[in-house]
Write a structure and sequence with these properties.
Layout: H1 3-31, E1 36-37, H2 39-43, E2 53-59, E3 65-66, E4 72-78, E5 83-89, E6 101-108, E7 114-121, H3 130-138
Parallel strand pairs: 1-2, 5-7
Antiparallel strand pairs: 2-4, 2-6, 3-4, 4-5, 6-7
Length: 153
């Protein structure tokens, strides 16, 4: 084999290897993407069926129910327009309470309820997930303008 053919073969193998690595990285990235949806968007069918996504809104007052002696809890998430019942089996964050902002990661069930694998609550009195704050502001719910992190000028 001539040196020119060896170089062309090497360049071809490098291009194929890099292409394969990029394809695998993009596939892994796509599988791990979590989109944020409000209850209204989830009810409208915007989340891809059978895919994990983030559901965010407020925990409705008086909706939390816990089975005695178990970690299973259910509550309702609302965006002040629509509601979705959520069930979760696990330890809730210390700051989780009714009337507070929440983001749940999980799946929409065929019956229209949401099965959460993870539940996140706001971490202090001045923070709410930006998606939840924006959604509530659109719905007319009073939300303060403070956000976590430094402000950009």
């Amino acid at each position: 084999m001539t040196p020119r053919k060896q170089r062309m073969l090497t360049v071809g193998l490098v291009v194929v290897g890099v292409s394969l690595a990029v394809a695998l990285a993009l596939q892994a990235f796509q599988e791990n993407l979590l989109f944020f949806y409000s209850p209204t968007q989830a009810i409208a069918g915007e989340p891809p069926e059978g895919r994990k996504f983030r559901l965010g809104g407020l925990v409705e007052q008086g909706s939390m129910a816990r089975e005695p002696g178990e970690l299973k809890v259910s509550f309702i998430v609302t965006d002040l327009e629509n509601t979705i019942p959520v069930s979760y089996a696990g330890v809730l964050p210390d700051l989780f309470r009714e009337g507070q902002g929440v983001v749940a990661h999980g799946y929409l069930q065929p019956d229209g309820s949401f099965l959460a694998e993870e539940v996140l609550a706001k971490h202090d009195e001045n923070y709410m997930a930006p998606e939840v704050a924006d959604l509530l502001a659109e719905q007319g719910h009073p939300v303060d303008n403070t956000r976590a992190g430094p402000e950009k000028n």
